Automatic annotation (TrEMBL):
Allows the formation of correctly charged Asn-tRNA(Asn) or Gln-tRNA(Gln) through the transamidation of misacylated Asp-tRNA(Asn) or Glu-tRNA(Gln) in organisms which lack either or both of asparaginyl-tRNA or glutaminyl-tRNA synthetases. The reaction takes place in the presence of glutamine and ATP through an activated phospho-Asp-tRNA(Asn) or phospho-Glu-tRNA(Gln). The keyword Protein biosynthesis applies. Belongs to the GatC family. Keywords: ATP-binding, Ligase, Nucleotide-binding, Protein biosynthesis, Transferase. Gene3D superfamilies: Glu-tRNAGln amidotransferase C subunit, N-terminal domain. This is Aspartyl/glutamyl-tRNA(Asn/Gln) amidotransferase subunit C. It catalyses: L-aspartyl-tRNA(Asn) + L-glutamine + ATP + H2O = L-asparaginyl-tRNA(Asn) + L-glutamate + ADP + phosphate + 2 H(+); L-glutamyl-tRNA(Gln) + L-glutamine + ATP + H2O = L-glutaminyl-tRNA(Gln) + L-glutamate + ADP + phosphate + H(+). InterPro entries: Asp/Glu-ADT_sf_sub_c (IPR036113), GatC (IPR003837). Heterotrimer of A, B and C subunits. Its EC number is 6.3.5.-. One of its GO terms (biological process) is glutaminyl-tRNAGln biosynthesis via transamidation. Pfam families: GatC (PF02686). Signal peptide: none annotated.
């Protein structure tokens, strides 16, 4: 697959990358090279191969998912502009 200059310009715009007009042909060439490499990877037969999450087989550490207050409410509330009775105090929105 080949990328033309208009497509390279659009990709740069979508990625919010400022690319000068004279650099667009080089960007189009680089993007075309990336796509041709991906096409080569699609030709590889990977049937029967399990996906990997790491190069070394290991299980992720597991922990029980428990909701806590973090064990330091005073420290957390010390950054609050206004705290009362162990909670953040905010101004009323409705009267």
């Amino acid at each position: 697959m080949s990328i033309d200059i208009d497509t390279a310009r659009r990709v740069a715009h979508l990625a919010r990358i400022a690319v000068k007009e004279q650099d667009l042909p080089a960007l189009a060439g680089e993007l075309s090279g990336i796509l041709s490499f991906m096409e080569q990877l699609n030709e590889v037969d990977v049937t029967g191969i399990e996906p990997m999450t790491s190069v070394t087989p290991m299980r992720l550490k597991r922990r029980e998912d428990v909701v806590t207050d973090g064990g330091m409410p005073e420290k957390v509330l010390s950054n609050a502009p206004d705290a009362r009775e162990g909670f953040f105090a905010v101004p009323k929105v409705m009267e």
